[in-house]
């Protein structure tokens, strides 16, 4: 299980370099808020570790999503992550296909991560279980769950261990890796290890509980030690 940490600036990235994957995002622009290309480029230049970039929480705008994905890939991201803030499976498929093609046509070695939200019922968005077959059919690499609304309610409040285990197994059967995130806390690490996704994603955990605070190097070190 790899640890992905989500800094919002090169300064925070500097304190996140012990993580397995450095995930560039702009939390003030949403759960998977996109940061500027020059921030992605600057963070990519700081490390040999894989860099991921969130490109936004998209409704029915496949062209915008595809162009954002291409931009993140050109800026140096190794993983490109898009969130599905929509409900209609046909529209979701269009966004996913656009993002996968935008990345893979020019950068076949890069990974595409498609995220649905654990709190999909309160958001009225597509369920992670309905996303997986669409992501697999389009040739994405990972299916992810995160919370769409960041109000400190955890993914575990919306989906229990059984559902997350089932999601992980479903992805594996479909040839996809799994990434799990959403206000995870240190106490969740033992059960996450049992669920066994390829990646867990955190920000609030390594900010001391408040994702609007700043990332602490000591907490990144503790997280990586406990994940191992
Ligand atoms: O990709 C992971 C997210 O940045 C998780 O953020 P969070 O732990 O604050 O919910």
From TrEMBL:
Keywords: Lyase, Schiff base. Transmembrane segments: none annotated. One of its GO terms (biological process) is methanofuran biosynthetic process. InterPro entries: 4HFCP_synth, 4HFCP_synth_arc. Belongs to the MfnB family. The active site is at 25 (schiff-base intermediate with substrate), 81 (proton acceptor). Pfam families: 4HFCP_synth (PF04476). Pathway: Cofactor biosynthesis; methanofuran biosynthesis. It catalyses: 2 D-glyceraldehyde 3-phosphate = 4-(hydroxymethyl)-2-furancarboxaldehyde phosphate + phosphate + 2 H2O. Its EC number is 4.2.3.153. GO terms for molecular function: carbon-carbon lyase activity. It comes from Methanosphaerula palustris (strain ATCC BAA-1556 / DSM 19958 / E1-9c). This is (5-formylfuran-3-yl)methyl phosphate synthase. Catalyzes the formation of 4-(hydroxymethyl)-2-furancarboxaldehyde phosphate (4-HFC-P) from two molecules of glyceraldehyde-3-P (GA-3-P).
